[in-house]
Design brief:
Elements lengths: L2 H24 L7 H17 L23 E3 L9 E2 L2 H15 L5 E7 L2 E8 L2 E7 L5 E3 L2 H4 L17 E9 L2 H13 L8 H9 L4 H6 L3 E8 L8 H11 L8 E3 L2 H14 L7 E8 L2 H7 L9 E5 L3 E14 L5 E12 L2 E7 L3 H7 L6 E6 L6 E5 L42 H12 L11 H9 L14 H4 L3 E4 L8 E4 L2 H13 L5 H7 L7 H11 L2 H6 L2 H5 L6 H12 L1 H13 L21 E5 L7 H10 L3 E2 L9 E4 L5 H9 L4 E2 L1 H12 L2
Parallel strand pairs: 2-11, 19-20, 19-21, 21-22
Antiparallel strand pairs: 1-6, 3-9, 3-10, 4-5, 4-7, 7-8, 10-11, 12-13, 12-15, 13-14, 15-16, 17-18
Helix pairs in contact: 1-2, 16-17
Length: 687
């Protein structure tokens, strides 16, 4: 076949495959078998291999992935990603409908939709081609996950038909079907890794993977539910959904029009019944006013549209007998009582264990061995016990006490006033605490050493090579190569052998080396200081700018920081006064970890803020207003003197006039602090 013939054949095959993707995903009505489809795809792949110059970026073969994303660039949403007002109560749905009728008069159409339990995504199309996909993030800024989203087969890379605006954004929910979720978790268990708690967590973990080829294998899917843009001319939401379907987007068959409250309730009932038969998770129903002009009339509150409401399903419950209670020690030393139950089916799985939370909950429920208990499954992997049927209790039963010594290391447990949990104070000598700290340290949001999963850390701990996180940086090739351990099967994990061969060892050492580039805020989070989660670590890092400053901060310095209360301040102080901390930090510093925030130097130019306009107003703590303005310009941003609907951000210091704040709120312009601004620069720098 010559070049010209190949070009024509590639064009024909691409269009043919697109048509079948459309039939399959958008219409749920395939007209050929999977086998026939694969033959077309194979032929196209073969031709593209032969004629690489003919591979188009939106060819249907491009769903296989391959590109690596090192860090996900942060992108500001053109339209903020708001949330929905939600309720568990049918009465509140009735109130919603009454309110809308009062405001709009009698003729209101609604669209009822499933509330997909996944990860929100906003995808921009330009000239019919997918150009960018961004996660929700904090609603203002999200992560650019385009490379990974392009691997999802039900998301068109190129649109079909006509009538789509030159540029628009479509929003939907990335979900992981149950069948794929189960496969992924089976594999994780075989490899000694912790399974994902639910399909939502698995979907969210998957879209943030660095290797898009891995994402492609996970079979993510996407349902779309909102069209946004300046040139959307459809009168109704339903019409926009139908149009989007005709362009190739997957719109749920369950998105239906309703006229009356009776129809709405009928829909709620049908959806709740259908829930257990659907091949993916939903957590409720969304009810939206259909007419776009009526939507505009109703507008938004600060957080959500007035024209929509989410009705959430209540958690599912079952009853079972309490057989015994185990006490588990976590990373922080907190001891959690876990109930062993007579196996009972609940929300699609067989439940054998459930959490009893803490000593207070045990006392409050007065739960006893042998009791019939009520188990509830929310979003977590471990269901919880929420009630006891005391009527069915045996007269011989005795109240359940709480253990006094750590079941792992025998140390006497302690309980701080005002806290619910009992703790094992043997932080540096209690095995699950040491392993937990190591696992936290290497986790994705901390040091992100993903070549070292939990199973491998356990092996290194068991072999005596890791006692604390600083030991990671002393590991050598010779210590690692050939290490092996067989783990017997347990209730949660299958039997497995972990062994370190050449490639594994290289990956581990490389991952450890690369972690030295992780920015200071994540290093701080990785240290696992009690109560210092990801957000607090960021706050502290950007406020104090270096570990040295943070170490010297006293209790009052800490509580003076926004959002830092007594509990966190106390925990940070006691972390730094512990003599073991000093040795540990010294070793980590010597290993080359980042112990201070690298503010983008003012002399260094970039395009991080390109396309953004700022109004800088008020008095700032760390930099002068002029310095901030100069920084904005040097990084591609624009300074404007007055707020308008086109302003991207109001960078606000203290003493800013109240009128400015009001105007920004009215125009929905995000108001950011000096700290947020530095964070923005810094995060942009890492991309
Ligand atoms: S409409 C202004 N429709 O629920 C918000 N959202 O709590 C417009 N979701 O962030 C969202 N299914 O991630 C809408 N059929 C549906 C949905 C849906 C799931 C999620 C979405 C959103 C969250 C709001």
């Amino acid at each position: 076949m010559n070049f010209e013939e190949a070009k024509q054949r590639i064009h024909f095959l691409s269009e043919e495959i697109r048509k079948h993707n459309y039939n399959y995903y958008a219409l749920s009505n395939p007209t050929i078998t999977d086998y026939q489809f694969d033959i077309l795809l194979q032929e196209l792949m073969q031709l593209e291999r032969q004629f690489p110059a003919l591979v188009e970026i939106d060819s249907p073969t491009q769903h296989v992935g391959g590109a690596i994303t090192k860090e996900f660039r942060q992108v500001i949403h053109q339209y903020p990603m708001l949330s929905l007002g939600n309720t568990y109560s049918e009465d509140e749905i009735r109130d919603f409908e009454t309110r809308i009728h009062k405001l709009l008069g009698d003729t209101v159409d609604y669209v009822c939709e499933l509330k997909f339990d996944g990860v929100a995504i906003g995808i921009t199309y330009r000239d019919g081609k997918l150009v960018m996909a961004v996660t929700r993030g904090d609603g203002i800024r999200g992560d650019d996950v385009t490379t990974n989203i392009r691997t999802i087969k039900s998301i068109p890379l190129k649109l079909r038909g006509t009538g789509f605006p030159d540029e628009f954004e479509i929003r939907g929910e990335i979900i992981l079907p149950h069948s794929s979720f189960e496969k992924i978790n089976e594999r994780r268990l075989e490899e000694g890794e912790e399974p994902f708690a639910n399909p939502r967590n698995a979907a969210s973990g998957t879209i943030k993977m660095q290797n898009s080829a891995e994402v492609a294998k996970r079979n993510l899917d996407c349902f779309f539910y909102q069209l946004l843009g300046d040139n959307i001319s459809f009168d109704s939401h339903y019409e926009s959904l139908m149009k989007a379907r005709s362009w190739g987007f997957r719109i749920s068959q369950y998105s239906v029009r309703c006229q009356t409250i009776v129809d709405i309730f009928e829909y709620l009932k049908t959806a709740e019944k259908a829930r257990n038969d659907l091949p993916f998770d939903i957590d409720g129903v969304v009810i939206k006013v259909n007419s776009r002009s009526q939507q505009e009339m109703l507008g938004f509150t600060a957080k959500s549209p007035r024209w929509a409401i989410a009705y959430k399903f209540k958690a599912e419950q079952a009853t079972s007998r309490l057989l015994s209670v185990d006490f588990q020690v976590g990373r922080t030393g907190a001891v959690t009582p876990v109930a062993n139950l007579q196996p009972v089916p609940l929300a699609g799985t067989i439940v054998k264990r459930a959490t009893l939370h803490n000593a207070d909950v045990i006392a409050l429920l007065d739960v006893r061995i042998g009791d019939m208990v009520l188990v509830e499954k929310g979003g977590e992997i471990i269901p919880k016990i929420v009630g006891v049927d005391t009527g069915k209790r045996s007269p011989e039963s005795k109240p359940l006490g709480f253990i006094q010594a750590c079941p792992e290391c025998g140390t006497t447990l302690i309980r701080t006033k005002g806290e619910a949990a009992w703790y094992c104070p043997n932080e540096n000598g209690c095995p699950p605490q040491i392993k937990g700290k190591l696992e936290h340290f290497i986790s994705r949001k901390a040091m992100n050493i993903d070549s070292l999963g939990e199973g491998k850390v356990e092996l290194l701990y068991d072999k005596g090579l890791l006692h604390n996180v600083a030991d990671l940086y002393d590991l050598s090739y010779n210590q690692l190569i050939g290490l092996e351990k067989k783990y017997p099967s347990t209730d949660e994990k299958k039997a497995r052998t972990i062994s370190f061969r050449e490639k594994t060892v290289q990956n581990i050492l490389q991952g450890i080396e690369e972690s030295k580039q992780v920015p200071f805020d994540r290093v701080l989070y990785a240290l696992g200081i009690r109560f210092v989660g990801e957000t607090i670590a960021k706050k502290l890092a950007f406020h104090f700018l270096s570990l040295e400053n943070l170490r010297h901060a006293n209790f009052t310095d800490l509580t003076n920081v926004e959002e830092i209360g007594d509990k966190i301040a106390g925990s940070v102080c006691s972390f730094f006064t512990d003599p073991k901390t000093e040795t540990l930090l010294k070793r980590l510093e010597e290993a080359g970890l980042k112990f201070h925030i690298h503010i983008v130097e003012i002399s260094h130019k970039s395009e991080i803020l390109s396309g953004l306009s700022f109004v800088v107003s008020g008095i700032f703590e760390k930099y002068s207003r002029e310095d901030l303005k100069k920084t904005i310009e040097e990084h591609g941003g624009k300074n404007v003197s007055a707020l308008s609907s086109k302003t991207s951000y109001l960078l606000a210091g203290s003493n800013m006039g109240p009128e400015k704040r009001k105007k920004a709120e009215r125009e929905r312009i995000p108001i950011i602090s000096e700290e947020d601004f530095l964070k923005m620069l810094n995060e942009g720098k890492q991309t």
